[in-house]
Design goal:
Elements lengths: L1 E9 L3 H12 L5 E3 L13 E5 H9 L10 E3 L1 E6 L5 E5 H4 L5 E5 H15 L3 E2 L3 E6 L5 E7 L2 E12 L12 E16 L6 E7 L2 E8 L2 E9 H9 L2 H12 L6 E4 L3 E9 L4 E2 L2 E3 L5 E2 L7 H18 L8 H29 L4 H16 L1 H13 L4
Parallel strand pairs: 1-2, 1-11, 2-8, 5-13, 11-19
Antiparallel strand pairs: 3-7, 4-7, 5-6, 9-10, 10-11, 12-15, 12-16, 12-17, 13-14, 14-15, 17-20, 18-19
Helix pairs in contact: 1-4, 1-7, 7-8
Length: about 375
């Protein structure tokens, strides 16, 4: 027997949960299918750099306060190792309370899942979605639950499963041959709510304020990442000091370390008949500049707006999904181009490029309108 619904959301992670909660606030009930059990832990150690624009979305969903404490980013300092040129962007210059905030992925995920359970009645957990079959009038979602094969037909399906259904089947995949080492470190000097983005020949190195500590996201080749995760703490901190320099004094301690392979993956076309991809099911970006998660959150918010403000009779129609695709085109392409360009231009030690990077950083720091343009795009997306 096939169940029926107006909207099915495949994936109850932060992006899928945001979409479901935004729809619920507008009086539309979606069915959420989530693979994890209701009480499963979410021990993902990665830090999340939330833009001020993402804070506004979470505030409108009335869950921002439940995230406390988060660490505000009052300044972003950008530099390159072995070359001149640096730029500082501040919240005061941008006339914002903060340029962004740092939270733990597991913390945000737990808050969203709890709220989802409270506000969305049809949130099924422990579900393995095996297929989404687009169709002219409905899309059929097939899934396993409790050892039984089931299906549900919906006028519209939002695929927000982080790319699990695609597997390696994204239409565009770029392997950066890099991995991000993630850990918490402490330094001799306080961070004073400054986030550091330092470009090294091996890849970007980010240090983000996280309470009294610093959340480290250190990009390097995959083999080195594995070695550094296993190296003694003293060796790890010594190499970190070499790469970052002495702006924060000596690095004193490092916590548990893990690493994640990095690549660019995206679907050229977001929409299928009666179905649409959002978040990491639509694009997976390099963590440089912290754009990927914020882009996915805007996907969910904009899709909710398209549904809530549109004709309910046109839900899931070709025209509705085409309008959403047009609405997201500039922001999505801009985010993909921006992060990919940063990786390609800054992850090398070619002398002419190093000089060009230095000039570009120096000019950006000396031109307030250009700096404001960059800050607003990082904060609110390409439509900011």
């Amino acid at each position: 027997m096939t169940d029926a619904a107006d909207i099915v959301i495949v994936g109850g992670g932060p992006v899928g949960a945001t979409l479901a909660l935004a729809l619920a606030a507008g009086g539309i009930e979606a069915v959420v299918l989530e693979s994890r059990k209701a009480r499963s832990g979410g021990g993902d150690p990665r830090p999340l750099a939330l833009s001020y624009g993402s804070r506004l979305i979470l505030e409108r969903l009335q869950i921002w306060q439940a995230l406390a404490p988060v660490s505000p980013i009052e300044q972003i300092h950008v530099s390159q190792q072995g070359g001149f040129g640096r730029v500082a962007m501040t919240a005061a210059e941008a006339e914002l309370p903060a340029l962004g905030y740092v939270a733990e992925y597991a913390q945000l995920d737990a808050v969203l899942r709890k709220t989802l359970g409270e506000r969305v009645p049809r949130c099924e957990t422990g579900v393995e979605v095996t297929a989404v079959k687009p169709g002219q009038d409905v899309a059929v979602v097939e899934f396993m639950k409790g050892g039984m094969q089931q299906s549900i037909a919906a006028r519209m399906v939002a695929i927000a499963d982080g790319g699990a259904l695609q597997g390696a089947g994204f239409s565009k995949v770029v392997d950066y041959h890099q991995a991000a080492v993630v850990a918490k470190v402490t330094s001799e000097m306080p961070h004073r709510q400054v986030a550091f983005e330092r470009f090294t020949p091996d890849g970007p190195l980010a240090l983000l304020p996280c309470g009294a500590d610093l959340a480290l996201v250190w990009t390097m080749n995959t083999a080195a990442a594995r070695q550094f995760c296993e190296a003694p703490a003293e060796t790890f901190l010594f190499r970190l000091q070499q790469q970052f320099g002495g702006r924060l004094g000596a690095f004193i301690t490092v916590g548990a370390r893990s690493f994640f392979p990095l690549s660019l993956k995206f679907e050229r076309d977001l929409a299928l008949p009666r179905a649409v991809r959002i978040g990491n099911a639509a694009q997976m970006l390099h963590p440089v500049a912290g754009q990927g998660f914020n882009l996915g959150l805007r996907d969910a918010w904009e899709l909710a707006g398209e549904i809530l403000n549109g004709d309910r009779a046109a839900l899931g129609s070709t025209a509705m999904l085409a309008a959403y695709r047009r609405r997201r085109r500039i922001d999505r392409r801009g985010g993909i181009w921006f992060t990919d360009s940063l990786v390609r231009v800054f992850s090398n030690d070619i002398a002419p490029l190093r000089i060009g990077r230095g000039i570009a950083l120096a000019l950006l720091g000396a031109m307030p309108p250009a700096k404001d343009f960059v800050v607003r795009r990082m904060t609110f997306g390409a439509r900011g």
